[in-house]
Every structure is written in structure tokens, then in C-alpha cells.
Amino acid sequence: MGRQPCCDKLGVKKGPWTAEEDKKLINFILTNGQCCWRAVPKLAGLRRCGKSCRLRWTNYLRPDLKRGLLSEAEEQLVIDLHARLGNRWSKIAARLPGRTDNEIKNHWNTHIKKKLLKMGVDPVTHEPLHKQLLSEEAEAPSSDASHSQESGNRCAAENDSIINSEANSSSSRPPENCSSDDSLLLDNICKNESLGKSMWIDEAALVDESWENICHVGLPSVEENSCAWLLDCQDFGIHDFGLDCFSDIEFNVLNTLEMGENIN
DNA sequence: AAGTTGGTCAACCGCATCAAC
DNA sequence: TGTTGATGCGGTTGACCAACT
């Protein structure tokens, strides 16, 4: 016998989350921590699938999430990482603090893809389109689509080792074999300190760090990302969760939120 | 003003992998 | 050690909104 099913399909609610459901989920996770998603809906009093709860938390409710469009530097980083990793959005997201795989995937499909096409770059292979046309002409016609996918995967596999070795290195020094594109990227990253830091940090460390902030510190320091954090709080209604670690300033923001909720 | 189209993004679906039994 | 469920991930869908006709 294996485990119990994650949720009985009967009576499970689907569709958009209400503010009330969000509150219940946040309250539960802040109180009990992030464990065993199967049990979360029941314990939190939600008629949702555990999977749905996890998704809602990781993609929308996590306090360390950034909001708004990706910056130029972030976008450039996504493009570079996509060239290395392919469509492995979770890996890419792990290197952009405060961004989710879903968010990056959406941004890629709606913005970056078009941008690259406009620039004459194939968003799948990251090769110039004219160059690709020439190589496709030279190849057998049956190998086109599968080839680009395959080469993308191969590229991703090759780059796994690159990325892993980067991650294992605690130094902020770039890899010695980086291309001119990489150098350009690094310039962008260096302009954005937080990005620069995250670029070389191990993924697990990133996750742990963000969770440490929530569980033990309560809030990031005022200097670091205070605006982003306060904006996040607006989405939460954290004052309802019995946390006493917020300053008056933050409560002012939360009052604003409350007004918004009353409208809903 | 009403209808249509296109863009955006939250959420769902299904598959792969891992781990519990 | 095989089976089965949990979890994570990428792909896809659909609701909502703004721009356009």
C-alpha cells in the first residue's frame, strides 16, 4: 500500500482564490510552517486540493515575492538562463529572487519571446533566425522541429553542469569560459546587486533563506527591499494573523489593504 | 456605445520523479 | 522490491481587461 490520496476530488473547490481563503492559507503556513501539503487544506479549513494550496502559496502569497514587471536586468538574466537551461522555469526562477517559475514563464511567453523574434533571434535556440534558416536548408526536412527541441535539451543538459559548478562556487567570480554575451549579462547583473548575489548562490540556499526570513526574522531589513515587502503585505492582511512584529508604518499600509478588502 | 480582438496572468492539468508503504 | 501516492514541474487554458473598430 502506498500513501493516502492527496485530496478527495469530491467537494474540492476550483477557480480563483478568495481573500478569505488566502487569509486562511497564510495564517496556517505562518503558524505551522510549510509542510505536507496534503494536510494543509484540512488543517487550514480550506476546501481546496493540497496541490492548489501549494501553487497559490508559491506563486502568489509567499511574502518574499516581488511584484510588477521584470526589470531590464532580470529580463536579460532570464534570456541568458533560458539559453543555458531551456524551458526549465523552476531552475531559472531559482536564480531570480522573488520571482516564480509561473511568472517567468508567463513573461517569457508574452514579452520576451516576441522581443527576441523582433530582434531576429529564435527564442527556442537563441540563434539568429537567418542563420537558422541557412542551417535548416542544409539539413533534412524531417529533422527540423525535433532537432531544435533536442538541441535545446542537449544544451540544457550541458549547461546543468555549468550552472551546478557555478552554484557550488561561493565566489562571485564569473566562469572563465564565459562568452561576450555573458560578459554583457554580467555587466547588467553587477548593476543590480541583489541579482548579482543570487546568480551565484545555490538554489537550496535561496529557498532556505527566504523561508528563514518569514519564520524567524519576520521581516527583511528596512534597507533591503522594504518597498517590495510592504507591497507584499498589502496583499496579505497580515494584521489578521496575530503577528506582533510589524511597525506602525507597516500597519498603515495594512490599513490601506483593509480598505481595499472592504471594497471586495 | 457595443462588439471584437489581443494581451496578460492566475490557476488547472497531466506527466515525471521521488519516497513511503 | 514493487506499488502507489505526494510533490514538483512545464504546458495549457480561460477569465478578465484594455485597446481598437
Layout of secondary structure:
Elements: H1 19-32, H2 40-44, H3 50-61, H4 72-85, H5 89-94, H6 101-118, H7 129-138, H8 144-168, H9 180-191, H10 193-199, H11 203-217, H12 226-234, H13 248-263
The structure holds a DNA duplex (21 and 21 nucleotides).
Question: Which characteristics define this entry?
Answer:
264 residues, Arc Repressor Mutant, subunit A, 3 domains, disordered C terminus, DNA-binding
Shape: elongated
Largest sheet: none
- The proportion of strand residues reads under 5%
Query: Please, what is the average pLDDT?
Result: 61
SSE succession: HHHHHHHHHHHHH
Description:
The protein has three domains: 61 residues, Homeodomain-like (Arc Repressor Mutant, subunit A, Orthogonal Bundle); 131 residues, no CATH class; 47 residues, no CATH class. Helix content is 62%, strand content 0%. It has 13 helices and no strands. The N and C termini lie far apart (46 Å). It binds a DNA duplex (21 and 21 nucleotides) through helix 3 and helix 6.
How would you sum up this structure in a few lines?
The protein has about 260 residues and is an all-alpha fold. The protein has helices at about 20-30, 40-45, 50-60, 70-85, 90-95, 100-120, 130-140, 145-170, 180-190, 195-200, 205-215, 225-235, 250-264.
